[in-house]
Task: structure prediction
Amino acid sequence: MRAARAPLGVVLLSLVATVAVVTGPVSSASPGLPAATTAHAQVAKPPKARYVPPAGVLFNDPMVPARRRVILHKVIRSIKNTARKQTIRISVWNLDDRPIVTTLLRANRRGVHVQVVVSGIVDNSNWDRLKRGLNRNTRDQSFAVQCKGGCRSSAKIMHSKFFLFSRIHGVRDISMFGSVNLTTPAGNRQWNDLVTVPHKAKLYNYLVKTFDQYARDKKVARPYEVYQADNRYRVTLFPAPNRNPVLNELRKVRCHGVTGGTGNGAGRTLIRIAIAGWFDSYGNAIAARLRRLWDQGCDVKIVTTLAGRGVNRTLKDPRGRGPVPIREVSVDFNDDGIPDRYLHLKSLAISGVYNGDTGASVLFTGSPNWSTRAQRSDELWVRILNQPGLVRHYAGHVNRLYASRSAMASGGSPIGNTDRLAMRVTAGDPGLPSWFELE
Result:
């Protein structure tokens, strides 16, 4: 890695958050209230607006204090606005944020059913506090449990991140998923995403079924599973042995013949990638396909934290059309080879020709990095079709990160540091700082 290029006081542009809100406007005045005529007249205060989590994507920014915890705050506000007898289900690789734990315990005390499943690596005082407050009996309506390894497979870890709310005020069947863990570093050290989907019962019910399998912590007969919720949402559950789902999707992409106002505005398919870590043979195969798409004319731009040596060698090859645009988004304040601020997303956005559709808008997001370790873990990966606004948000996000002061040429850090760090992460090196969560 390398030292930050700019002083700590540099403030980057705030990143976008999608804006669809399902509640109507709240009036700022009460109709029929007489005008104040004396100094003692009282003006009625407007009713306090109820919070309903907006649909769409939300990004945080660890370099901008006001934007660091926006995703965590959204989860907290959603918990606070869940009424008694409703159910909150949380499945996450790591949970170590005191405000999140406090809010979950308060929700449980007011009668909300709070159910939490985390991976076996979790070991901290905040998690212990949550376990004590909720108990560990999955037959109860509230519980907090850990999986021994993979929750529904023989994998070593469960790495999924999704949050389910049965109802918040008048909005039902709310699903949230993305790259974010419920930890303090997820806000103050990482760039993350969170997609919120309300009122989609099939998607929500499938994720509830998946959560229940996680909570039982028992191997299912066929852990790799693909579920088409409707014409927009498709869920893929890892582990994916002998498969490379990312490569398979990229094989459906063509670079020319774009229609319907999609693509890059010049008739070419646009591909934007934000991926925390990709390396080894799994990641190399994806890099080779992206290299081919770039040479065929696709508009490709990539931001990452850890791209292995083989990935960089393939993408930076000067032959053909030249190097594929890729930059490492990370900041190493003390130049120790471990980034203090780093990209944590695992997203792929495509606008153009996909699977025979010449005007497609496709987003993939969720928990898996592009590595053999992810291929062999319990992961959640979601494909979203026919939402061009969502794809534009992700594409714009990648463009901004690519051009930011926190970006540099991938592999441009001190020689060997990136590759050594990738190997340490893959091996689960206990010497890495506890806050460094590439997972």
Remarks:
- The domain at 56-219 is CATH 3.30.870.10 (Endonuclease; Chain A).
- The chain has two domains: 56-219, 233-426.
- The longest helix spans residues 201-216.
- The radius of gyration is 22 Å.
